[in-house]
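Recap from last week: sequence in, structure out.
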Amino acid sequence: MSWVALLLAGGKSSRMGEDKALLPFGGYGSLAEYQYRRLEGFFDQVYIATKEEKFDFNPRLIMDRYPQSSPLVALVSAFELLSVEELFVVSVDAPFVDRVLIHRLYGEAQEGDDVIVARSLHGREPLCGIYRSSILPVAKEHLLRGEHRLGHLLDAVACREVFCEDSKKFWNLNYPEEYAKAYRLSSSI
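Predicted structure tokens:
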């Protein structure tokens, strides 16, 4: 089975004030390209889930098939469009998720798990995990009900949590000051 990654970049970036996926990062023209190129080194195929073609490089795209903006929409769209059994899902604004953590999640996965996600000191990290196609019926039901929180989806399926003590790996770049700090750190990544 091939390893396939889905990079979530369809959010509104309202707290950042501009589209964070398009901000420069790590020597690349955008955070999206940084994440995409990095994931290409770990996975057989990488896709970006988005609402629009907005990138200045040529990634494989999964266009959201529903009008709402949520990771749930991206997951449902990806599983409806791709013939894959599982996807590694990570948010575009989490540039410190690394190969070690990704391999650990795959290493902990067991038959019967619908989802394998990381758990940090701050709780479950639903935007860093392996989602299997078995979630699709439940995910579509949640989508139809307007329940977009991934936590509710994870509560409704067989979810394995893998603890990771290093909370820095899950650092999200939601605000300009978080992005500025991560940008400074990106030269040492």
